[in-house]
Structure prediction request, 648 residues.
Amino acid sequence: MNHAKKAASFIANEARTDWHDQALWFVREKRDRAAHAIPEWEALRELASQIKAHTLSNLDIYLEQFEKQALKNGAHVHWAIDAEEHNHIVHRILQKHQVRHVVKSKSMLTEECHLNPFLEQQGIEVIDTDLGERIIQLREEPPSHIVLPAIHLKKEDVGALFHEKLNSEKGATDPKYLTEAARQHLRSKFLNAQAAITGVNFAVAETGSLVVCTNEGNADMGVHLAPVQIHCMGLEKIIPRQADLGVFTRLLARSATGQPITVYTSHHQQAKVGGEMYIVIVDNGRSEHLGRADFRNALKCIRCGACMNTCPVYRRSGGHSYGSTIPGPIGSILAPGLDLEQNSDLPFASTLCGSCSDVCPVKIDIHEQLYRWRQVIAQEGHLTRVKKWSMATAGKVLASPGPYDFTGKMARTALNLLPRFALYNGLNEWGKERELPQVPKERFREWYKRVRGVGNE
Amino acid sequence: MSRDKILTAIRKNKPEAQAPPELPDFRRADVDLEKIFREMVVAMGGKFLQLTEKQPIETLIAEHFPNEINIASAMPGLPGSINLTKIRYPAQLEGVGLAILPAQFGVAENGAVWLTETDCGHRALPFIAQHLVVVLKKENLVQNMHEAYQRIRLDGMGFGAFIAGPSKTADIEQSLVIGAQGARSLTVMLY
Prediction:
């Protein structure tokens, strides 16, 4: 129970947990306001879901079309079967251009591939340029959210970090001042970078375009200043036509932060004059996931983070508790596909309330997949002993009227009579942070008989 | 080769073919494009200015950027103080205080303007400049992103971007700060 353990350490600081919970709920509410302002919102979600379903069912064709267009545009196209190959391809490109300094904009894919530590081992400086990413890079931490990487931190944490690493004033905590300090620091990095790496939001098969969305402008500062630009994309980023961007650009930012669009929506087709443009298309388990009929819809994800902002478990356990590159509900259905045993606790880090599926802009059946992963995990024997035993016992009791009646009566009596220490101890996981419910005097069947007269027995 | 391995795996694992949906453009009748556009530019943190005969670009620039001396302009007939034809490397644009650029069109639903490499002269200019002014005709407003993409031809274009408002971040405690890595302000001038 890795998630539960890490979540316990997160909620040890109650004030911070409450802040985290409310900050993310605030983003969820902004999303609601933005969505409600668009009368065709639900139609857009349905269109996005259908476009993605169509794309996944023709993924090979669209990838080949994309490659052909990108080559026509003068870009270099590489294919990586896994994270290791992706990292080696990027390294070879950098070696070819004798690059020592790289700037990188936000990319969950390069996080997934652990590109930064790999390049650093080869003696290459990699600077993350999104403010939140730079903060966690300086702290040597992974992001805790895919859109708000440093949402687990307070301004005091950032102030202390910048004082130590960027020489900002001691004790400064004003977000404006700290952002300005980062701006000055990052400008010098942009001007000295020999190559820029970006993630990709959408890759258009029809035109060979790579669309990159940011609010800070950091991806553009990197790409347009450095001679070499490298775009790393998971192969599910493909969409068929330019016109499809109309649907996705309307959904992405509204779902992510409640903005009507990101500040910058950049369309890269060709390298700048005198520059080189590289595209790395990465599989890393995605083609295999496509074969899992019950779970392939997860490949529709456009990484907006809406499912995290709304999730009652995520908001109160923090992104780091999941231990996977992508946390939250979507991470909990993607991670088991990559390593079932390692991530077997994640589909249980959910109340199955379904809020994630309700806000998902591409209508992924997230909570249903969470439920289905639980079945797979049980079948493959990855349940913990306590869970296996308690589920088996409960199953037997609930299936047989005699023992069910007896257990119910016992519980009603015992819960009223037993002292607290007997009820709230290590065996009662549920009672750790909560009170057990008040025990009713009688069971529903008895109440019904009494109130409504003689039953039908 | 990984390319073939990946494509073979996809062919084996992909679901049954599903048809693509028809894309409506969700345009509405009787929409006050100018009003919505103006409101959205401001909502995204930008400034909106109306150009008139009495208030031409030169006057408004002098009024709103009185102390700016490093001006790069890609507007025909409006020379800045920086000669853009002399720029060899994008890093040479680092000193630009204000860039004045023509936008092809604007999008009412989100206040975004569409800029292309050809219009800007240098790809880096809209991002590296400390402040940005974009100028566009009021005839060139569209309702939404569907209509916007009908007006664009990405095929054959080097680079183009929608820009909506100034550079911003809320990465520190969700506090909105204007002026992250790109332009610190965006002024949209409509004529």
Remarks:
- Chain B has one domain: 31-190.
- The two ends of chain B are 56 Å apart (CA to CA).
